[in-house]
Amino acid sequence: MKLKIFNFVFLITIFISQSCTIRLDYTLYSQLINDLQERTSDKYTPELIRNYFNLNQQSLKQFDEYLYFSENERNRLKNLAKEMFTFGYDNYLKHAYPQDELDPIHCCGRGPDHLRPDNINVNDALGDYLLTLVDSLTSLIVFGNSTEFKRASKLVIENLSFDKNSTVQVFEATIRILGSLLSSHLIVTNEYQPFGDMKIENYENEFLNLAHDLAVRLLSAFNNENSNLPYPRVNLKYGIPLNSYNHTCTSGAGTLVLEFGLLSYLLNDPIYEKVARDVSEIIFKKRNPITGLLGNEFNIRNGEWQGFMSGLGAGIDSYLEYLLKSFVLFGHKKELNMFKEMKKSIKTYLRHGLVEQSV
Ligand SMILES: *[C@@H]1O[C@H](CO)[C@@H](O)[C@H](O)[C@H]1NC(C)=O
Ligand SMILES: *[C@@H]1O[C@H](CO)[C@@H](O)[C@H](O)[C@H]1NC(C)=O
Ligand SMILES: *[C@@H]1O[C@H](CO)[C@@H](O)[C@H](O)[C@H]1NC(C)=O
Ligand SMILES: *[C@@H]1O[C@H](CO)[C@@H](O)[C@H](O)[C@H]1NC(C)=O
Predict the structure, then answer these.
(1) Lowest mean pLDDT among 61-75, 153-167, 190-204, 297-311
(2) Which pLDDT value is given to residue 155?
(3) Domain locations along the chain
(4) Residue 245: CB within 6 Å of ligand 4?
């Protein structure tokens, strides 16, 4: 929860300086910001927060510690998070770079499982593309570690290539690699440098160019006339794999609008935003006609649902998240309305847990 809010604020922050030319609805935008700031500010006590969320009953007092952080506690946890990040990051560089990630059991580097292409657990995220290093760029920014950000940027710019025989999940490559490259580009080129001096000498849009290169490769996933829904995976070098899986989770297909939209904006090329937004709308239209809820998996050959479990967890969560974030970033009312409709269905039809039952 805390991390989600943090992401959200970060996303808004990185966009503040870029937002002038974007069609933002400032009233709703500032409402959202105020709301977040109020909720995280120090004057908010457990009582107030419980009232805010309508959680007044005695039985919920036991959860107080999760509702509120004092300034001291917040700082302690902040430093702890930073320490944990540095530990992971340093050991990645020491034991695993230039592979994608550190295998913590064997303490060595790990990349795609080329011998077992169907090992999607590993292969979906790992693409032989410096995953952890790229993924960490924005953490270094948030922690204000200018020296290390510049050093890591140099490694990425000199050595990152997407010309790889790796079949990755479009969703993972988008949120991790594309997202990180775009955020880094925004920060490096931001004239106000909100996180400290993250400017890179002689920067020539390398992060943006890398993002563009990756996105062109991912674009082949949208070549699916059967249902207009994207293939879940692409081979970075060869496009859609011959024996591609034909099912995808809702999140996997519908969580691309932020990165693809931002790329379109930065490149002044509408195609990325269009394919991502189209998919988001196709999924929305697939809601159950009675409840308005979404399933968690569909077949991309015929567009039919094949996972009928609805919920807020894995498989669906980030679809909903991106509807709202996309409104915050781009200011399209349409997505806000989609979000509100989903919220209504969820409130009405999903079984509620402890909180609502005891109200
Ligand atoms: C920046 O990151 C490097 C690598 O993790 C670390 O050694 C250094 O202490 C960090 N600097 C600051 C100011 O946190
Ligand atoms: C690409 O990788 C796959 C699986 O890892 C392998 O079977 C195939 O031979 C490779 N293709 C080329 C052209 O190297
Ligand atoms: C890029 O990779 C090559 C080969 O692995 C290495 O020699 C070089 O030092 C790397 N560049 C940077 C900036 O680390
Ligand atoms: C997906 O569907 C296509 C066309 O029906 C088929 O050729 C392919 O084998 C299917 N993929 C899998 C993994 O079943």
Answers:
(1) 61-75
(2) 97
(3) 1-81, 96-223, 246-359
(4) yes
